[in-house]
Write a structure and sequence with these properties.
Chain lengths: 344, 316
Amino acid sequence: MSATSGSIRSTRFRDEREAGWKRLAEIVEAAEKRGLSRLSFDDARDLVMLYRQAVNSLSVAREISLDAAVVRYLESLCARAYLVVYAPREGLRGLLARFFARSAPQAVRRSFVPILVSFALMGLGGLAAYLLTNADSTWFYAFVPGDLAAGRGPGASAEALRRVIYGEDRQPLGELGAFATYLFSHNTKVALFAFALGVVFCVPSVLLLIYNGAMLGTFVSVHAEKGLALDFMGWVTIHGVTELSAIAIASAGGLTLGYAMLFPGLRSRAAALRHAGRDAAKLAVVAAVMLVAAGILEGVGRQLVTDFWARLAVGWGAGLGWLGWFVLAGRGGPGPAGAGGAEA
Amino acid sequence: MARFRRRDDRKAKAGGRRKRLFAEEGKRLVLTPPEGVPLHLVVAGLGARLGAQIVDLVLTTFATFAIILALLFADLVGEAAFGAIATFVILALGTPFYIVCELLMNGRTPGKKLLGLRVVSNNGSGLSTHQIVVRNLTKEVEVFLPAAFLIGGGEESFWFNGMMLLWLVVVCAVPLRSAANRRIGDLVADTAVVLDPRPLLLPDVADAVGRAARERFVFSSGQLDLYGAYELQVLERLLRGGEEARDSRERQKGLARIGARIRAKIGYAERISPQEEEAFLKSFYVAQRAYLEQKKLMGEARADKFHREETTVENP
């Protein structure tokens, strides 16, 4: 074999193809450095062709060549080129447009049942806490942690409660300061935990939902006792509709994950989790967007809009806006439908 | 799709020495791209991943401080607006930062790039946006929360601390137990973190052998029938090993020792002078490789001198 052409088969194999490999390595290097879109026309055209050839060479080299250096080189070269050829191509703008116009509302619509269950659980907790606190006002302290109550317990006077509701003792930081504190507030954490810990067989999500509802219920009870129920509702509504919906949607994501863990069906648990994660992750992002919006409503809206009916209108208006986005957007198959783009 | 291989010392001893070839590479991940040829990637170690995470954390913290300080000194905004903007910056340089980085830099963050790591999709297709979002959403609860707990020192509640410690154990145990060092986010998103492959083409040892040397040393097929692919590759590494780096006299001695052993084994009668030792080994290498490659082509692959059927070094 070696005598006929002066070199052995695998050396000839290498000599014939080495120029192509080197060129591929150069193109890949350039693409990594400057980005795929800045490649010259020739490079872009050759990239895929050379990649296929290199993969082909690797496959052949594994079979015929005992030169470890070549096999190893091709292995790395192909992996590197594979990562460039199959890199995500979509720009950030296209991605955001697609998410808000289509995939987010579609995911919410698909998760209709878990979202409904979340709202029901929250309502259940609220109702139970309302009844309990009505019967015995000391239940309030069981439901509300001290730092959140801010002096609004059963012992507070109607006057004090009214002051909080109508913003006569404004927060020293003002509107934007309130927005800032909101973002790190209790409810953001609740939403995050309800989503992520749902993996543990739904249990934490369910508990957090009931508990969150319970807090609302017990506040309503305390205010109702002083005849301020409607005023409190107005105060809560302006951002609460958005915020509680966000918590419910995040929890629905958690419930979806937990359900996949509990009842994976014919799939393995990991596969079921992965499948459920497709919608759950979108729900979590939707919830995050809604929480930021709720923060703006709480920080700006609540301080500026003090009229009861105006508060109600803004709060439910925002709620209707979200609902409209979820129900109407992204119905018309593929292609950007701009129905809900402005919402975010 | 993916199969994993973990180097295990006991197994390696039992299974023959040839596994030592991959001793330095640790766990490997097999991806099958749409072209259908499996690619072998080296899984990133936990230390490297922790390092990348720390680099990213330092970077984001530094950027956050820089922006806040710039705002403070520029004095463009009021106190309240400043608080809001600062909060927003802190939030934006958390999870969204990682998502955008991995999206735009093809599975890398600045820290990963520095340490030569990269996120790949486990199923052999390209990394999707969904996968990047999922693996970074869980990062919040999986990495940042336990880290904050460890630094902050927990709260008074016994239950809270207990649950956090339990969570900490789970978070640490998953990547340690996982076949490719995957954390929970990687498992849910079906991704893995690998070392960035660096192609380096070494010259062919067989190229360096002149025609004269090959005609000077001639081997019969009986003499070439003794060794297998493993021995061939050991010889290749030996011939490659530090052609200029190592002390030439040491190298000559080593080559002479190996040459003597090979000649004893194959029954090569002629005595070789020390000057000719390298030429002898190289022509033996070429002849052996040509012989084995031809056998392989005929369907008789030989992994080593014990005449084991080649399970192939790449796919055991």
